[in-house]
């Protein structure tokens, strides 16, 4: 699912015609970079792609004072249909993104097992710092959020807390994990 497509099409459906800079200001006002995977700088390129796909249309060019001319866009009927489908698909789809950490942990470097407790502690410290930063950012944003947006940012906090709890559990088992890794026999390379 494409978060940026959903955001842009929804913004044009909600707020009507606008140019790219207005959309960027809207994204910044909603602080989407704090609670989505959307990069505000990527909006301009995405507008061009949505226009090429026929989901947005260029409706006119405007100039305001000494500012440069700006292309004004609007959502098309095809864009509204795509938005409805994307919205429904995004709400119903369950997404699980594998964490590369899991692969690295399943394939530990036997020569660096003594470093593992420090490495895990550093990861835990980084996640705890990220949680504090996220809670602070969310608290600053809360006065401007709807109830739905409030729940969305709280979801992010819960996910971080869950990851921290899991990592603490892993950390408590590190002596046994390291002993198991040292005792494990690595089979010879598989032959075809």
Automatic annotation (TrEMBL):
List each copy of the Transcription regulator PadR N-terminal domain by range: 12-85
Classification via InterPro entries: Tscrpt_reg_PadR_N (IPR005149), WH-like_DNA-bd_sf (IPR036388), WH_DNA-bd_sf (IPR036390)
Spell out the Pfam families in the cross-references. PadR
Q: What is this protein called?
A: Transcription regulator PadR N-terminal domain-containing protein
Can you name the source organism? Answer: Frondihabitans sucicola
